[in-house]
Each structure stands twice: as C-alpha cells, then as structure tokens.
C-alpha cells in the first residue's frame, strides 16, 4: 500500500467510515491511489449510499491528507455477472413490480426505474415514498440489496427522487 493510500485509510477510519456505514454502505476502503494524488474508493454493500455525500467525503479526505487531488468512487465488483433478459433497467423494474411495489403499496408508495447505466440503476420513489422520512432506509436496506442479489450485474442504486416535492409522505420527518 502506498504512503498516500495509507494516509487516506487512516483518515477514513477516524471520521468517515462510521458515517458511511450508518448510511447503509457496508464499508469503504481505498482501492487505489496514484502518483497524481487521485484516490479511488471502493464501496461494497450499498455504494449508492455514498453518492449524496461523496463531495463531503472528498473535502474531509483532502483536508486530512493534503496530497490528495481528487477522490473517485468505484463499486466493489459483483460476485458474478450474468446479464438479465433485456436491459438492466427493465429487469430491475420487473423485480420492483413483483417484489417491492406490492409491499410498499400499503404505504401508498411506488418505485419506478428512471434509467440505468454502467450497472447503476436510478430509482424514483412516488406517492407515499416521495418525501418519506424512511425512504433512504427503504432504498439502502431493502431495495438495493434485493436488486444486487436478483440482478448480479447491478453495481448500485441511486435515488433520483425530488423528495422535497413530496406532498403526502407516509412518514413525515416529524414522525421519525
């Protein structure tokens, strides 16, 4: 392990790793650090949990380790790769329709695939899920692990919902 990678690993352990785990990612580790100071982080579990705070993570790492010039995110490689019938987005929507949407319909919720690219699936939560205080938990601890299990080509899930526009969330922040 390079000196830069060791310094970043120490910075991750001190302040960043606990908050990433709390968001639903299993862990975060340094996958690579090059001579230009570009650090690549690998996130097994729920890499999509890290996307919203990647800028903050980069700022903390760059403050703790001055040699870092940029931080990139990479998902841990899937255990196996078998392409689903049709494209990944369509396969994900079939899984959501069969296994997720019937369960969250009780909360007036619905999930749709907004697109997919490079193994990443973009989800949009609707109805009672839009603006729900527990939407992040639903995505990180329910939907993302399910999709990664059912569709091994899935790298991660990104929630692209405009939660601020939700007009009738099942759980409001006050209920949390």
Key terms for this structure?
GMP Synthetase, Chain A, domain 3, about 180 residues, 4 helices, 2 domains, alpha/beta, about 35% helix
CATH topology of the largest domain: GMP Synthetase, Chain A, domain 3
Number of helices, counting only DSSP H or I runs of 4 residues or more: 4
Task: Give the overall form.
Answer: elongated
Task: Kindly report the name of the CATH homologous superfamily of the largest domain.
Answer: Fe-S cluster assembly (FSCA)
* Backbone structural class: alpha/beta
Number of domains: 2
Q: Whole-number average pLDDT?
A: 82
Q: How would you write the strand order of the largest sheet?
A: 1-2-3
Poorly predicted runs are 79-85
Report how far the terminal alpha carbons are from each other.
43 Å
Radius of gyration: 17 Å
Which range does the strand content fall in? 15-25%
Q: H/E series, N to C?
A: HEEHEHEEHE
Please count the beta strands (DSSP E, at least 2 residues each). 6
Molecular structure report:
The protein has helices at 3-22, 54-64, 88-104, 135-150; strands at 29-33, 38-43, 70-75, 109-117, 120-127, 156-159. The chain contains four helices and six strands; from the N terminus they run H-E-E-H-E-H-E-E-H-E. The protein has two domains: 3-75, 2-Layer Sandwich (GMP Synthetase, Chain A, domain 3); 88-175, 2-Layer Sandwich (GMP Synthetase, Chain A, domain 3), CATH 3.30.300. It is elongated. With 176 residues, it is α/β, with parallel strands linked by helices. It starts with a helix and ends in a 17-residue tail after the last strand. Helix 1 (3-22) packs antiparallel against helix 2 (54-64). It has a three-stranded mixed beta sheet with strand order 1-2-3, with helices on one face. The protein has a three-stranded mixed beta sheet with strand order 4-5-6, with helices on one face. Strand 5 (120-127), helix 4 and strand 6 (156-159) form a beta-alpha-beta unit.
